[in-house]
Amino acid sequence: MSKLETILAQEVEAEIQSLREEAEAQAKALKEEAQAKAKALLEAKERQLKSQLAQALKRAESAAELLLSTARTQAKGEVLAQARRLMEERLLALPQTKAWPEVLRKLAEEGIRALPEARKAVVAPEDLPHLEAWAQEKGLKLEADPGLRLGVRVLAGKNQVENTLLERLDRAWDGVSARLAKALWG
Predict the structure, then answer these.
(1) At 52, is the secondary structure helix, strand, or coil?
(2) pTM listed for this prediction
């Protein structure tokens, strides 16, 4: 090889080496840039997933709180419904007690006070004997209605007053249930 060929070969080799180093530097820079981008993407995705997880946990927590609140409300409603059933059972058992005739007379008296011009009193058939003397004393006609329970209905023409224990429980239930709820759950 001649000196010229050697110089040319060296220059070509130097150029190749320079190009190789430049290519390696570019490849290294591209690789680092790609790694940085990948890391940034991974971090962004991780933040996004953490945010989604936090939101999902918050939604799940809210849903659980709602379910718990609903279950508590339902349980309280069931307790109050059971209390009402017990009250109704006690009221329905009252006619079998010795106190019933006096309770019935008091209901009838309240009915007469509410409708002083009453001419007729209506009670359940089994309650007729309890109010016969009272009706004669008041000058009222006494009739039976099998559909009437736990009380009396007094009539004056088209006007009437019905005074039954179940009706009174219905009217008082909102206040009774509120006091009961406060006593039970504060």
Answers:
(1) helix
(2) 0.63
